[in-house]
Amino acid sequence: MADSATFVKFLGELDVPVGDVALEISRVELQLKALRSSNAELREIDPEGLDDDFQSAIVENEGLIVKQDAALVELRAALAKMIGGAHAAPVVAGGAAVASEPTASPAAPAAAAAADDGVYL
Fold first, then answer.
1. How many CA atoms lie within 13 A of 55 on its CB side?
2. pLDDT of res. 81
3. Of 34, 76, 81, 88, which alpha carbon lies 20 to 30 A from 120's?
4. Cα separation of 31 and 53, whole Å?
5. Distance (Å, rounded) from C-alpha 113 to C-alpha 110?
6. Residues 64-80: tens digit of each pLDDT
7. pLDDT class for 8, splitting at 50, 70, 90?
8. What number of other Cβ atoms are within 10 A of residue 47's Cβ?
9. Which residues neighbour 37 within 8 Å (Cβ) at sequence distance 6 or greater?
10. What is the Cα–Cα distance from 4 to 91, expressed in whole angstroms?
């Protein structure tokens, strides 16, 4: 696992502007919101979990949510380091403070962005 300094270096080698990282954070946040909303709707429509297609979509979405949550933590940590240096505030994910060190590899955000966008209602 890489630390956020390595990820920032990786972004720098790609010559990624800070604004692009911020836009990607917004895109991932919106995608996560849509995935979670879709899963809530699917569970509301099929509370007993009897529809195989709905259950399959929920499982697929949950897998993507995990990947995108990890990418979001890494992107936020990288952005904090890019704009705030070593004294950046902790990153908040899902309402809880988390360490500003990422938990996934440097390629995770790119891989997550290239991944399937999940199943929406």
1. 6
2. 85
3. 76
4. 21
5. 5
6. 999 999 999 999 998 88
7. low
8. 8
9. none
10. 12
